[in-house]
Amino acid sequence: MMAKLFRAVIMGPPGSGKGTISERIAQSFGLKHLSSGDFLRENIAANTEAGVLAKTYIERGLMVPDHVMTRLLLPRLEEMTRHSWLMDGFPCTLAQAKALNSTCDLDLVISLNIPYETLKDRLSDRWIHPASGRVYNMGFNPPHVQGRDDLSGEPLIQHDNDQPEALVARLRHYKDVAKPVIDLYKSKGILHMFSGTETDRIWPYINSLLSTKIPSRPETDTQHIPLP
Ligand SMILES: Nc1nc2c(ncn2[C@@H]2O[C@H](COP(=O)(O)OP(=O)(O)OP(=O)(O)O)[C@@H](O)[C@H]2O)c(=O)[nH]1
Ligand SMILES: Nc1ccn([C@@H]2O[C@H](COP(=O)(O)O)[C@@H](O)[C@H]2O)c(=O)n1
């Protein structure tokens, strides 16, 4: 018999560890990690209509408008009828949350609450492999060879909008738009907030919460299934 499918969202400001924790959840519980940032980058690389539009915002360090995000992501989620998933970075506005709500019922929302100083330190030290989206931090998870991706050996880059000047505006914007989303999920009784400065200390709490919600790893979700 097929296990019940599980749908979750992870929210948090830039640098709060959504991607890092999502990877751990995906590995431990067999949920498929869906990253809105990766979807955007794939669409930009493929020069889709939405990708071309999204690029003009991302290049300026701005949030992509709701109608572009929903047009891009909802059809992908609708296709995921057979898989349990964890969505990272979407929804991040109330309009996106309402649109998601009309597509599926979420089981759980994780919200990460990390102090500003910690975010600033992490992001100024974040290095990315643009082709794969693999993320490093020079202190927390450094690459084997400095400045090079572990798997491909290709050069790592830093994003301008990870630097402190751009970060202040990004965090202020996140606070404003995320509050009504957090309130919505709180009112539905599915919000779980985790605060702290270290992913390794937050992770055991998330792990034990999910262990109570996803008792066994669904057989069909243990393999890596590429998106259509
Ligand atoms: N020092 C330190 N770095 C961490 C910790 N957890 C994650 N990181 C690093 O912090 C950076 C941000 O983590 P991500 O997982 O990319 O955060 P995110 O919330 O997905 O960020 P966005 O993609 O900008 O929304 C990365 O360089 C991680 O390697 C931690 O506990 N300590
Ligand atoms: N709901 C979202 C999610 C992301 N963006 C834009 O994409 C950029 C990269 O996202 P990461 O999660 O990989 O950091 C981000 O800086 C935003 O410009 C968005 O607009 N809306």
UniProtKB/TrEMBL annotation:
Its annotated compartments are: Mitochondrion matrix
Renumbered residue ranges of the record's region LID: 125-162
* EC number, UniProt record: 2.7.4.10, 2.7.4.6
* Binding sites annotated in the UniProt record for AMP: 36, 41, 96, 170
Q: Which UniProt keywords apply?
A: Acetylation, ATP-binding, GTP-binding, Kinase, Mitochondrion, Nucleotide-binding, Transferase
Show the catalytic activity: CMP + ATP = CDP + ADP; GTP + CMP = CDP + GDP; dGDP + ATP = dGTP + ADP; GTP + AMP = GDP + ADP
CC terms in the record's Gene Ontology section = mitochondrial matrix
Sequence ranges assigned to domain Adenylate kinase active site lid in this UniProt record: 126-158
**An example Gene Ontology molecular-function term:** nucleoside triphosphate adenylate kinase activity
* Any one of the GO BP annotations: GTP metabolic process
Q: Fill in the subunit field for this protein.
A: Monomer.
What does the record's free text say on domains? Consists of three domains, a large central CORE domain and two small peripheral domains, NMPbind and LID, which undergo movements during catalysis. The LID domain closes over the site of phosphoryl transfer upon GTP/ATP binding. Assembling and dissambling the active center during each catalytic cycle provides an effective means to prevent GTP/ATP hydrolysis.
Q: Which family does it belong to?
A: Belongs to the adenylate kinase family. AK3 subfamily.
The record's PANTHER family line, in alphabetical order, gives: NUCLEOTIDE KINASE (PTHR23359)
Protein name in UniProt: Adenylate kinase 4, mitochondrial
**Corresponding gene?**
ak4
